[in-house]
Amino acid sequence: MFTTKYRPNKLSEFVGNEQVIQPFLKWLLTWNPNSKKGSCALIYGQNGVGKSLLVDLMLKKHCYHAIHLAPDDERSKEQIQQTIKPLLHIKKTFDDEENVLIVSDIDSNSGDHGFIGAIIECIKETEIPIICICDDKFNQSLKPLLSHCFDIKMVKPKYAEIYPLVYKVVTEEKIKIGKPSVDKLIEQANGDIQFILNSLQLGVKKNVNTKDIQSANIFDTTGKLLNMDASFNDKYATYWLAHDIHTLMIQENYIGSIMGAKDQVKCLENIVCGANALSDADLLDTEFNFDLAPYVAANTIHATLKCNKKGLIKFPRFLSKISVQNKNKREKLDYTKVKFAGV
Question: What residues contact 26, with CB distance under 8 A and at least 6 apart?
């Protein structure tokens, strides 16, 4: 995989955001639990700019040992108190490497107020550096956390920073692609290096007509994924325009788009084909391994092979339920709406 082959092995190979490396390095090497700059660093920026990669390279260069609290780990307040807090007082490993706690995708638990509170408790009593990573610093649930953190804002790499990497890949892999296509690919990627590498590996040269990944209409792009006349390369390029949600969109809509509805046996066979592919995609996605992302994309596309767009594309009910649950939690905590007896 290009994402593995061309993954930076040292900090000097990292693409973009040179302006944040020195402040981040200074914070890490001079870390003090009583520092005015905070016991915790909050690294934020849009998806795909390399936040986790930068942290990994930084810790590797300076021989730190990472303790990871990943999105798929148990993140309840009780679990953090039992398993994470004791580790905050162990400064070094047996190999004399200094410990660092990394909390990935801290904004993915935005509806769990107990989780954020538990992290703040960790920050107040830690004896090792804590690094939190998120896409959206301005998520309302993170507001109590901000005063305890040293901010590190990452932005999407510039064209001049990305182009040398693309040129290296194109020349070493002998990919035949013109500069106008490269320019368009870089523009479409919106700073996402993985998108560029995956696209180059599969030889995707025909880009979907869109100005920006962030402005892509997920209902339109889902319809294109369900279109039986679209090629795999076209679907692959479309998938990455909103890869965080496309698998859920296909899961919600593939049954209603299955072909062969008049033949019940054929219809069931088609549904099974789609369900198996989505199941495989889900299993790969739960690994939170970026190297597996192209396989998640391929299985999502495979789930659409027996489909064709029919009518209105529906939004995933799963996400709607999560939204309602979070809304209910907020309402329970809104004491201004509580009516007391006698009032």
Answer: none
- The CATH number given to 17-153 is 3.40.50.300
19-38 pLDDT tens trace: 999 999 999 999 887 776 67
Tell whether the torsion through CA atoms of 136, 137, 138 and 144 is positive or negative: positive
| 212 residue type, one letter | D
Per the structure block, which two tokens stand in for 97?
A: 């490497």
Q: Which two tokens stand for residue 157?
A: 């790499």
Measured CA to CA, the distance from residue 165 to residue 197 in angstroms comes to 9
Amino acid 102: pLDDT: 93
Name the residue ranges covered by the structural domains of the chain: 17-153, 158-207, 210-320
Third-level CATH fold of 210-320: Zinc Finger, Delta Prime; domain 3 (1.20.272)
pLDDT digits (tens, 9 = 90+) for 295-305: 898 999 999 98
Give the integer Cα–Cα distance in Å for 68 and 105: 11
